[in-house]
Structures are given as C-alpha cells and as structure tokens.
Write a structure and sequence with these properties.
alpha/beta, FAD/NAD(P)-binding domain, 3 domains, five-stranded parallel beta sheet, 24 strands, globular
Length: 426
Amino acid sequence: MSSVVVIGAGITGIQAALDIAGHGIHVHLVEREPTIGGHMAQLDKTFPTNDCSMCILSPKMVDVARHPFITVHTCTEVESISGEVGHFQVVLKKHPRYIDESACTGCGDCIEICPVEVYNRFDAGIGVRKAIYKPHQQVVPDYVIKDPEHCIECGLCYDACGPGAVLRKDEEKTTELEAASILVTTGYAVFDAGMKAQFGHLLLPDVITSLELERMINASGPTGGKLKRLSDGKVPESIIFIQCVGSRDITIGRPWCSCVCCMQALKNAMLIKEKNPQMEITICYMDIRSYGKGYEEYFERAKALGIRFLRGMPSDVLADRKGMSLQVENSETSEVQILHPDLVVLSVGIGPSDKTSWIAEKLGIPVEESGFIRSVNDAVDTVATIRPGIYVAGTTTAPRDIPDSVASGGAAAMRAYIDAVRTRST
C-alpha cells in the first residue's frame, strides 16, 4: 500500500496528515520532539478571535493519535532519504525515551516523585521541569520521557511506576519506510534575543521575549496565567513592547518580516489590558502590518482599549535607579522620549528551524539565502520543490501565521495524495 511521510508534526503537519489520511492514504507523521503539536501548543490565545490555542489544537492532536491511517513517530528524526516519486525509501532513527510505551499510562506518578528540576524549554525558561517529564499536560502520545542527561539515577521513578514502564536502559531504533511522496513541515525557530544585546535580554530580569510572555500569561503555564516581573514578582504597572527584534534587520542578516509579530503583540497587549485596565501599555514599532482578514479591525480594537502606539525603535534598554529606561524617537513627531517601563517585551521574529538546511540537503532541494526551503515558484506553486514527489508547507518556506500555515498544509497534502494514488494504481 502506498503511503506518505510527513516530516514535522506542528499544526501544518497535523493538518496535512489528517487531510491525506481522510482520503484513505496511510501517513507516517514524524516528529523529533516527545509530543506532536509544535509551537502552537505554547501559545495562550490565537488572533484575531482570541480563541484558546489548545482548544483548537488538542482535538486535532487526538484525532491524529486515533486515526487508523496515521502512524505517529515521536522522538524520531529522518536519517536518510533515497529513491524517487512513488518509491522513496525513508530511514527513521528513533531516539531512546527510556519508557516502555506499551506499559506507560501517562499517570505522572514518576514526575511527582522526581527530585531533579531543570530548565524547561517548552516554558521558554520561565518554568522548570523534572528529569522525567511531559512537556505539557496535553501531550500526544500521552507518555512521559526520561532525560538521561539530567537524571541522577536515584531510583525513585522506578519504584513509583506501578506498571514498571520506566526503563534503566534504552537504545536507538531504526525503521525503514517506503513512501510515494514526502511532505516537509519542519516549522520555524524563534530568534535568539541575545543577539540584540542592546535590549538586555538575559541581562535585565524584566526584559522578556514574546514567547516567554505567552507562557507567563497562559493559564496552564508556570505562573498560572499571572503576569509578574521576574525581578520581584510584582505585577508591572507599565509595559513596553519592542517590535521587529530579529526581523527586518539587515545588520544581522534577517531582512524579512516575520508576519506574526505585530498581531501577536496586539493580541497579548489586549489580553493584558482587558485584565488590567489601569496598566500603561506602549507598542514601539516601525510599521504595524495587519494584513489578514479581520486584522485591521483587531488593530482598531487595540487602540480603542487605550493601548499606545509609538512609531520608533528604541536604541537601548538600560538599568537605572527607577528600574529601566529606554530612549526612543517618535518618527511621526521627531520628539525624543525617555520611557521607564516596569516590563519590556521583545517581539522576536521567526526564521528557519535548525534542521531545515539539513533536511533540504538530505532531500536534494535548495534553500533560500534566508535559510527557508525554496519552492518551485513563490507566485504560482508554493508547495512543490524541484524534486518531484517532495512538497513543503507552512513556515518551512517562509514566515506564516496559523491560518496560512494550515492552508498551505492542505494544499501540499493534496499534491502528496495525488502521487500516492498514482503509485497505487500502477
């Protein structure tokens, strides 16, 4: 039976897998993380409707896990790819989870008893996790994973696990698949704000990134949805958002607009303002790009709530006796202002994931100068590549928001489905 391999299980890969499997074609959904869901699982709400992110994503994750025509491969990466359209050979390498997946019930008893706490990448460093953990409570598949790098082998998790699912030893496993076509949805990576040292990220405790803010205001996040200053735990009285950090910046080789940052800042500013009407919120921007359906109306709603928009880019964020200060020139009035915020949020841009160039090299397809994978034609065919049978979707090719990513995933899914049907009929 012909099948399709989808590499990357964020919202784009999930939607593509569901679309293909819904037409009776078997899909192998490959994800290097312990759970599917990607970056969308980290978000609090989605614009412009302010719907709960996981309320949209979680049912799709469950549908993927239960679908008879979808096989989910987590903790798995692509080792090699060979062949041609209709007859690709894909070798997968599954990293050890140190968990017997046939026995694990996902109860979390081992997590509660583990004494080790380390940096939690899912919470963007705002929270901590144990050495045996779930990235979040709605993981799919619902298994824990043990981190051998930080595990001290105290033995408590072995005793706490009733089914005996925690393994002392585990090894990498290799699987070879045959596929009619391959769909690449490896997603994006968030810009490292430390590369813009003038803004003081990781140097000043009350300078955070937009992703850190998302985890902080999320009800299921490390602070229970409460916005706090990391320096003293107090609720800030004033917040400044700085836009285009790692976007539209030729000095660091990132000239592209990241598409989502303006709307994400509007969304989070509105959510905070609705809960704290007295709070002063200023968004420092170069241009507000509210290009999608309902986005301009969303922008007007933000202004109506009393959120201030200051057209200008701050030069530096400095510590002073009042806490922090920054200087910015209002490019509309030429007035230079000195601001003293309690909290600074850096709206970091997005770029290619760290595996994009590696995957492209394995597939024999080119990447743009920016590092995103190049499609055949950005104006006519945005999902095909120069290699027949290999398709790309979502933020693998360019920055996109969730609706655009889902749409491109659906388009690529249908192209992959056609290849699978042709293979089946020959």
